[in-house]
Design a protein that fits this description.
mainly alpha; 69% helix; elongated
Length: 111
């Protein structure tokens, strides 16, 4: 029981640090890639908590790798318009001339 408590005390700050380092405060602000990385980090953090035989480093290392890759991709996206468009996509206009563009809404799967 004490080992589980100690592991939580170690993993929790790493997960919080990672999410804060990505710079978003709300789920609605996340890009799809950032959301996937956040979910992956949370899943990876549970592995050493569930399996006491798994070394803690086996959970920390992939989490730090994901965090570093996300920060690197975000910085590259700030410097390159092409990379930013690849990662986040571009804006889509659904209202043109005061009228709703039904074709664009269908493409975006809006109802």
């Amino acid at each position: 029981m004490f080992v589980s408590f100690l592991r939580v005390l170690i993993l929790y700050p790493i997960v919080v640090f990672g999410v804060r380092l990505m710079g978003k405060r709300q789920i609605g602000e996340l890009q799809p890639a950032e959301l996937v990385i956040t979910i992956l980090i949370s899943n990876i953090a549970t592995l050493p908590l569930e399996d006491q035989n798994l070394p803690l480093l086996m959970g920390i290392t992939p989490m730090l790798l994901l965090i570093c890759s996300e920060v690197l991709l975000a910085r590259l996206g700030l410097r390159s318009r092409r990379i930013r468009h690849l990662l986040a996509g571009g804006p889509q206009v659904i209202i043109r001339g005061g009228k709703i563009d039904r074709r664009m809404m269908t493409e975006l799967r809006f109802t």
